[in-house]
Design a protein that fits this description.
This protein is α/β, with parallel strands linked by helices. It is built from 20 helices and 15 strands. It is globular. The two termini are about 40 Å apart.
């Protein structure tokens, strides 16, 4: 099962010092270094030799399915011992990792890093380029969104371990009760929101109090590309058509007070999902396990449909969430670390994780007949993986995150988030987010356009 805390996004204060350290390391590294430990100069022969020799590995991950993967890897390679450590979720782990890198001790051999945060570590040369070990030959193994997130040019800075192609989870019982059709466009979604709330003022189409990852995913789907990244030169522009389309449509939901004022991942949120007062979720393919455990009383009520489109007949989607396994450049045994990483993200470990409820990033697994034909009792026997696999194939692969996306996400609620609690519009909120993100990038030494 996934640790649900990872899905809450990165919010709040307390990040400034660690991010300043991270970005100082980033720009220092980009200025040149005699340390070539991150160049990926190892080879497949080194990986085989490392497995023959054996040794010990420390893996930082918040993903509980990785414990089974580690045991299976040890069974396949008796000379290797793997210690799985939960060093915290998302920003907590990144803080610990940056501190270990700065101190020069306690750095793990493998670390789980979300796609939005990987650029910060790769640009700082804090994680190894894995292409020399054979990672480059895995091109085509993964769905486009995750693979794009772990690569830069010919370099591969991690292997996708899961993915989050988006879909619309909806409470069929609630929609049927009020005779409302499942929306296929976002305009229809707004109309459905109005009908639902009019029919029952206690019922809302969804809960959204402002979350950076959700907003950027919908902008991604709408064709927006607000971030441009070329090394330490970055562009931040939320005036593009996709961003404007998202803001204009979502503003209607805010103006109509059609969004439940409930924070995601709280007990109140799960209660709403369970009793039908929150009728839909537009989110990633990793959600089923969370619904099953968090709202067990709604078993049989929920279904999954394709993500609503911004234009009728469109076929576009986006990713929400997902993470990679990366090998820190300061690790002592990168060849052996890569062997575990490939096993977990592209080898037998994938099927082990899928059995535990994970959603894969490997196309062979997500399109296999057995996977696609799996029926889910919680969703009324629906074969929901077919919806997710179709979504994954419709994700545009040219999305970019900022090298300081962790910081940018942390100020979302102080900028865009004001639109959810005051008279500020989403357009104004995006403009403020753009301004503050640009200022921060410039302060840290990036060339910002």
């Amino acid at each position: 099962m996934y640790n649900t805390a990872r899905r809450r996004g990165v919010r709040g204060a307390g990040l400034a010092s660690v991010l300043a350290l991270a970005l100082t390391l980033t720009l220092t590294a980009c200025g040149g270094s005699s340390d070539d430990s991150d160049t990926g100069s190892g080879s497949a022969d080194d990986v085989r030799a490392a497995l023959d020799k054996g040794g010990s590995l420390t893996v930082w991950t918040w993903d509980s399915t990785m414990t089974k993967v580690a045991k299976d890897f040890e069974a396949a390679h008796p000379k290797v011992k793997v210690k799985v450590v939960n060093a915290g979720t998302s920003k907590e782990e990144y803080t610990a990792l940056q501190n270990a890198i700065a101190a020069g001790k306690g750095v793990p051999d493998v670390a789980q890093i979300e796609y939005f945060a990987l650029g910060q570590f790769s640009l700082a040369k804090s994680v190894a380029d894995l292409s020399g070990y054979g990672a480059d030959k895995l091109d085509g193994t993964y769905s486009p969104g995750p693979w794009n997130a772990v690569t830069s040019g010919d370099a591969v800075y991690g292997l996708p371990v899961d993915s989050g192609p988006m879909a619309l989870y909806y409470n069929k019982k609630v929609f049927d009760q009020h005779k409302i059709a499942v929306p296929t466009t976002w305009d229809e979604y707004v109309t459905a929101a109005e009908k639902l709330h009019k029919a029952d003022p206690k019922t809302y189409i969804t809960a959204d109090t402002g979350e950076a990852g959700f907003a950027t995913s919908l902008i991604w789907q709408a064709g927006g590309r607000p971030y441009k990244v070329d090394g330490t030169t970055v562009g931040i522009d939320f005036t593009d058509t996709g961003s404007a389309t998202f803001a204009r449509t979502w503003q209607k939901l805010l103006d109509g007070k059609l969004l439940a004022p409930v924070t995601s991942w709280t007990d109140e949120w799960f209660k709403g999902l369970g009793d039908g007062t929150i009728a839909t979720l537009a989110t990633g393919a990793w959600m089923p396990t969370n619904l099953t455990t968090g709202a067990p009383g709604a078993a049989g009520d929920w279904r999954v449909a394709p993500l609503p489109q911004w234009t009728a007949g469109g076929k576009s989607s986006a990713e929400s969430g997902g993470s990679s396994l990366a090998v820190p450049a300061a690790g002592r045994n990168k060849a052996l670390a890569y062997a575990f990483t490939e096993y977990a993200a592209a080898g037998a470990g994938v099927k082990s994780r899928v059995k535990e409820g994970a959603y894969p990033a490997t196309t062979a697994d997500m399109t296999s007949k057995a996977f696609l034909d799996t029926k889910f009792d919680y969703f009324g026997g629906q074969e929901i993986n077919k919806v997710f696999a179709q979504s994954a194939s419709q994700v545009a692969s040219d999305w970019s995150y900022l090298p300081f996306q962790v910081y940018a996400n942390s100020i979302f609620n102080d900028t865009v988030g004001k639109a959810y609690v005051s008279g500020t519009t989403l357009s104004d909120g995006l403009a403020a987010w753009q301004k503050q993100s640009r200022a921060y990038g410039s302060e840290q030494g990036f060339t910002v356009k």
